[in-house]
Amino acid sequence: QITNIYLAEGKIVAVAPNLDDFEPDHTVDATNLIVSPGFIDLNANLLASKHDENSIPALMKLARKAGFTH
Q: Taking the CA of residue 36 as centre, how many other CA atoms within 13 Å lie in the half-sphere pointing to its CB?
């Protein structure tokens, strides 16, 4: 689908060809690119890491630092 994606405060607020009452701070031309939600590595094994703390928040922080999204 070729359309526009409108973001406000880091969240998608609309997906539409045109949104008359939206004034962007900036635009990104993603022509010939694919826009998608974050990707995750289903094979990641964070519990095998050599970090001292294996709590869920600590592991999420480690995953974000490695480039994974949530």
A: 6
